[in-house]
Amino acid sequence: LTPSENQELYSFTSKFPGLEESYRILQKIGEGTFSSVYLAKPVAKNLLPKGIKSTVALKRIYVTSSPQRIYNELKLLYTLRGHKNVAPLLDVLRHEDQVVAVLPYYEHSDFRDFYRDLPLFGIKAYMFDLLKALEFIHSKDIIHRDIKPTNFLYDPFTRRGVLVDFGLAEIDMEPITNKCPCSFGGYTSNMVRQLNVDYAGQFPKNGYLKDDQRPGRRANRAGTRGFRAPEVLFKCNNQSKKIDIWSAGVMLLTLLSRRFPFFNSTDDIEAIMEITNIFGITEMKECALFHGLEFDCNIPKIKDKISLEALIANAVMMDCKEGDTFGEDSPAWELLAAIDKKGVIQDSEVGREYAQAITVLKKCMVLNPYERLDAKDLLKLPFFDEFRD
Ligand code: ADP
Ligand code: MG
Questions:
Q1: Quick check: is 304 catalytic?
Q2: Are 268 and 275 in contact (CB under 8 A)?
Q3: Is 53 annotated as a binding residue?
Q4: d(C-alpha 354, C-alpha 350), whole Å
């Protein structure tokens, strides 16, 4: 351990009397926005429920998190025990305002170390476990709200993935109809808000509500940039489990295109424009109106929907041209053999399998959340045939 790591461990254990009597902390393994995570071994084996491996992850939730937020995370984790693709809560320790959640330790690799090297079979295994986890938590009416690679611990060697981090999760209010309540009964013209995006130089510089004196719309925006669903970006007040499916779709797009991060916006307006670039202005206007916004932008380049096949093929090809990134036997060549640069899928075995993967992607990344498939139905698609029992 470096001196600073040693100091951090010392400050952790010294603020938490009794901790070291239960767990021996080995090293720090992760750090998120709301916590630090440590690898530890229980001192007394009988501390752990039967059948659990002996190493654990101690998630030290920062004291700056509100007690309500901490309670919410622990309660949901407890509700979600019993599925192999969701990390169960083994124990909770508290000393004054310090809270530590005890989870099984999962061996995994950093996403950045494998996302360009997964062959299609690995991508399938990754998405299968992710969707299994989502199917399970959604069956319990829980939205994760922060689906992204660092919250899905994947081991490319064993091909096992586990969903972690329920810090932003919440219970879903079941939608009543296939109409978004934020547009119930349609809009009268004085209800619709105008969202304009101005083109200034290379990037859209601002989005604003035109001539609108009403207070700004507010909605839950919790999540991570690049993974937010359109309804989150458009501040819809009826966000459902489908926001997790959109994020899972972004993960699949990342794996297929071998681009990470795929979306790289710094704010919601830029994020809307990134999505508009793919789906085209017509579909985005429809989507915005569905959530009560009239959407306009004067960016000349943005016009029509583009094909995801071509987008993926071009991203991979650009990466290949950039130099030494792919070796001869890299999985990228597998993709390049399956799809040509116009996005036409070849009629070969690998071509057909890629077509199945892209079908999954197209059913995840659907602008309208009511038309987006849920995890259960996604798992029924032919891409996952070989994994189903
Ligand atoms: P935060 O809410 O701060 O994002 P997370 O629960 O996502 O906290 O944990 C942060 C990081 O710690 C994860 O991205 C992962 O690298 C590591 N981590 C968390 N839980 C475990 C676990 N059970 N096993 C192994 N590593 C973990
Ligand atoms: Mg996290």
A1: no
A2: no
A3: no
A4: 6
C-alpha 164/C-alpha 246 separation (Å) is 18
Output the CA 285–ligand 1 centroid distance in Å: 38
Q: How far is Cα 102 from Cα 244, in angstroms, rounded to an integer?
A: 25
Residue 160 corresponds to which tokens in the numbers above?
Answer: 């096992």
Amino acid at the residue 343: G
Residue to substitute in 25, 27, 28, 29 for testing ligand 1 pocket (most ligand atoms within 8 angstroms of CB): 29
60 touches 18 (CB < 8 A): no
pLDDT tens per residue, range 50-81: 655 679 999 999 888 889 999 999 999 999 99
pTM of the model: 0.91
- How are strands ordered across the β-sheet holding 23-31? 23-31, 35-42, 56-61, 98-104, 91-95
- Element at 280 (helix H, strand E): helix 268-290
ipTM score: 0.99
Q: Of these residues, 146, 165, 172, 244, which one is catalytic?
A: 146
Q: Which residues line ligand 1 (CB under 6 A)?
A: 29-30, 32-35, 37, 57, 59, 87, 103-106, 150-151, 153, 164-165, 167
List b or e across 7-41, with b for residues whose CB sees 16 or more CB atoms inside 10 angstroms. Answer: eebeebbeebeebeebbebeebebebebbbbbbbe
Only one residue has tokens 């494998």, namely 114
Position 61, amino acid: I
Q: d(Cα 59, Cα 12) in Å, to the nearest integer? A: 12
In ligand 1, the atom with minimum distance to the C-alpha of 61 is: 3
